[in-house]
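Following up on my earlier thread - several people asked me to post the actual chain instead of describing it. Fair enough. Here it is, all 158 residues.
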Amino acid sequence: MALDIQNVFNSLESIVVTYLRSESALTALVSSANIAAKLREDPINFEQSELPAIRVGAYGYVPTSSPRLNRIQLQIEIVDIKADLETTDSLVKQISALVIDLLRHQSPQLAGNNSKNFNEQVEDVRITGGTILFFNLEDQLSLFWVGGSIQAEIDIYN
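Reply from S.P.:
Thanks for posting it. Predicted structure:
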């Protein structure tokens, strides 16, 4: 049966946000942030309560030459975090890794008439870009992250 692309769109937000808010993902993110913090002379203990808000959107799919291949564009918006550059870089890398791992290996079965697990149909996941927004608190040396986004493409075969 052909993959129901609308069903994928409806499921991605819930799948990704739920996973990134799960205990294992939060532990990984806090650990990643604190490892980055410990590398500084004046470390900041990063708490779970300081983790960013996460929104996910599937914005459509890219036409491909194969009628069986669906290439979905996914954007993960990360907002409301205040951390320094090193911690931010670490978090972005960790969130990207978690999303790739989730979509390749840990996705639950999609609802509907699709008989395959979503992860069995995922051919490739690529982080295709990202944007980080900063503002200046007091001086040029104190950059704090406001938010950003990670863009990904997911190739799924019918």
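Residues 73 and 153 are 5 Å apart (CA to CA). That should answer part of your original question.
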